[in-house]
Amino acid sequence: MPSDSIDQDHSLNLRSPAGSRDEPDLEEAFDRIIAEGRDRLGRPLLPLAATGLLGGVDVAVGVLAYLVVEHETGQPLPASAAFTIGFIALLLARSELFTENFLVPVTALASGMGTWPRLLRLWLVTLTTNLAGGLAMAGMIVVALPDLRATAAANGLHYATLGTSWRSLFLAVLAGAVLTLMTRMQHATDNMGVKLVAAVAMPFLLVGAQLFHSVLDSIIMFAGLLGGLAHYSWGDWALALAWSSLGNILGGIGLVTSIRLLRVAHRVEEAQDDARGKPGDRTT
C-alpha cells in the first residue's frame, strides 16, 4: 500500500466523532458540578451566610469601580469593563452570588443529592446576605466618595423605573441566563485563566447591556437611595428586586440549567440510582 494511503488511513483512525470527543468533557464537568452542588446544599448556616455576605461585598467592589469610571469618563462601556473586577473577586475569593446558585445546586437536586428545602434555604440565605453586604458597601461608598452620589442615583433610576413589563422580565431572564452560562463555562475547566475569561466577558455583557440583575442592580439602587439624590423609593427597589429575581430564576434554570441537564440525562439517572443506593451520600 502506498505510504500516502497509510498516512491517510492513520489520520482517519485518529479522528473520532464529535460526540465521543465531547462526552468525556461533559461527564467530567457534570461530576464536578454534582460534587460542588452537594457541598453547597449541605453547607452549615454560618459559612453559608458568610459566603453570601462576602459575595455582596465583592460585587459592590465592582459597582464602585463602575461608578468611578463612569463618573470620570461619562462612558458606560469602559465602566462596564471596570465592573468585572467584582466578578474576578468573586471567582478568586470563592464567594457566591444568588444567581450563581442555579446550575450547580439544581443539578445536584435533580441528581438526588439534595432536597427542595435545602435549595430554598440556599437561595434565601444567599440572596439576603448578598443584599446585606451590598447595602453596607453602598453606604460606605456614598459617604466616602460623595461625588459618586449623582452617578449612582442616575443609574439606579434606570433599574428602579423598569417596572413590571415583558421588556423588564426578559432583561432579567437574559441576566439569569448570562450568569448561569458563566457558571457552566467556569465548571468546564480547571484552568484558572480560562475561568477568568468567563468572569470578565459575561459580567461585561451583563452591565454593558444593562440587563436586570437582582443583586447588582439592588446595590446600585442602594447607593442612590443612601446618597439622598434618588428620584425613586425603597418600594420601587423592592418591586424591582422581586421582578428581577423571578426573571433571573426563569433564565438561569429555564434557559440554561434545564436544557443542559437534558444533554447528560443518562448521567442524571445514574446519579439518582447511586443516591438511592447510598442514602448516606444524600443531603437531608
Structure description:
The protein has about 280 residues and is mainly α. It has a single domain (about 25-280), classed as Glycerol uptake facilitator protein (Up-down Bundle). The protein has 13 helices and no strands. The chain has helices spanning about 5-15, 20-40, 45-75, 75-85, 85-95, 105-110, 115-145, 150-160, 165-185, 190-210, 215-225, 235-265, 265-275. The longest helix has 30 residues, at about 235-265. Mean pLDDT is about 90; it is low at about 1-20 and about 280-284.
Question: Keywords for this structure?
Answer:
single chain, 284 residues, mainly alpha, Glycerol uptake facilitator protein, 13 helices, 80% helix
CATH superfamily: Glycerol uptake facilitator protein
Q: SSE string, helix = H, strand = E?
A: HHHHHHHHHHHHH
Count of the separate structural domains = 1
Please compute the radius of gyration using only Cα atoms: 21 Å
Shape: elongated
By CATH, the topology is: Glycerol uptake facilitator protein
Q: Tell me the span between the first and last alpha carbons.
A: 64 Å
Helix percentage: over 70%
Structural classification: mainly alpha
The low-confidence parts are 1-21, 280-284
SSE layout and pairings?
Layout: H1 3-14, H2 18-41, H3 45-73, H4 76-83, H5 85-93, H6 103-110, H7 116-144, H8 149-160, H9 166-187, H10 192-208, H11 214-226, H12 234-263, H13 265-277
TL;DR?
The protein is mainly α and 284 residues long. It has helices at residues 3-14, 18-41, 45-73, 76-83, 85-93, 103-110, 116-144, 149-160, 166-187, 192-208, 214-226, 234-263, 265-277. Helix 3 (45-73) packs across helix 11 (214-226), helix 7 runs parallel beside helix 11 and helix 8 (149-160) packs across helix 11.
